[in-house]
Amino acid sequence: MTTVGFDLQRVQRIRKLAVLVALIGLMGASMVTQSIDGIDGEWHERVESIGLVAIVLSIVGRAWCSLYIGGRKKSEIVDRGPYSVTHNPLYVFSYIGAFGIGAQSGSATIGAAFVLAAMVVFYMTVKREEAFLEREFGAVYAAYKARTPRFWPRFSLWRDEEHLTIRPALFVTTILDGLVFLLAIPLFELIDIGQASGWLQVMTYLP
Hints:
Structural class: mainly alpha
Number of helices: 7
Strand order of the largest sheet: 1-2
């Protein structure tokens, strides 16, 4: 295995572990909290619906990004399509998905907590990735980094490719990874059932 492959795989393993730890902690907090008007209230249902839209947008957005990156991260700087307006469009769409997951609790506060946790985890991961890319691509990456925001898109920078070489296996993998976000729906429904039946004790109510 090359040093390049090893470095990227190590960063990805660290990221997945950090995401798992944060997810477990936040799910634990969700078990003892409830939205301000209860599990059948209008606010609860509205936040859940917004969260579902966010999850779908995240899945579609991440798949769109994969069409451009196509496994080329190790060999070149991709600076077209979504990568022309932000360094990390995959992470931006992941933030949207994180809100959608947390919003299945019916609480916008829990949704925001999921986004904050994702931002902390991904910020540390991005710093490692940037160090790797600077080491591998030097001035080319430095110029890209200087003109493109790290996270929040600057749409005036948009540039696109006339043709894309698509790697179907990677596209499908990204779709499947995103579909995991939908597991939040039955998980939070189980929490609602547990709270309604008294199996889970509600300690606080959040908007």
